[in-house]
Amino acid sequence: MERPYPGVYNSFPSGHTMTAFFGAEMLRREYGEEYPGIAVAGYAVATGVGLLRIYNNRHWASDVLAGAGLGILSTGLPPICVFSFCPMQPIAHIASCFPSKFGIPRQAGIVDTPATVIFEPPYRIAEAVRGLEEFDYIWLIWQFHEAIRQDWSPTVRPPRLGGNRRMGVFATRSPFRPNAIGLSSVRLEGIEYSSAEGPLLHISGADLMDGTPIFDIKPYLPYTDSHPGARSGFAPLAAERLLTVECPPALLERIPQGQRQSLLDLLAHDPRPQYHHDPQRLYGMAFAGFEIKFKVNQDSLVVSDIVPLA
Length: 310
Prior knowledge:
7 helices, 6-stranded antiparallel barrel, 4-stranded mixed beta sheet, 12 strands, alpha+beta
């Protein structure tokens, strides 16, 4: 069948129209609520592109309509479609004490919580970690797999600022990013080679939820990765307010002995959102297979119960 423009048979759908409507929809998503005029202008331009393609006899109307629809729909592709174009695949995942986000340390290294890096089957090769035991710390590059969104915002509200001020997303460590990638420096406690799951990396100081996918592992080099005199913006290295933790010994004994101090340290750093100040509110934090129930009144945190997770 002869196409509108003689000799061109690949004009379905209209690529020009698809690109134009993709841009228009991105403008609407980003600025539509605050500046609706920008969204209207974007769609007006995109519509003009489509009409000109028809007027110049480059496409049929069906070509243009299909291109417009695909352009709009492509802005909402689920993450699996986005990552299908990216060669990155998880090489490992982490086994940690945190089955949910609540209670995870705000930064790596604040609390010496134990964790284990478990490689995925294709990467369970001892030679792949040869020489890593010579380093005290490693970098983990991982994914905020519970915070993946189809869109993103250029500004976020850092908890460090009480959730009251917006900062640029690239000036924060917020999980809500265009690419949900995290970076943590953790201590390498040892490498276990005898496991059926291949070499296991035993680490401490991790701020990752159980099951977090890891994309890469790199050694930490103190002579280049450490900058003690560097500025830290709105998150200065000020002494964090520590709570006094009251936990009856009978309750604490329910926690495995090697994880008790980590739990007390976590609670001392106040796992609540920084804008919570209700002394009557009962919190529940999942940790190491248990639910830790507690209340906070001013500078004191009182554990009321420790029960196995259902």
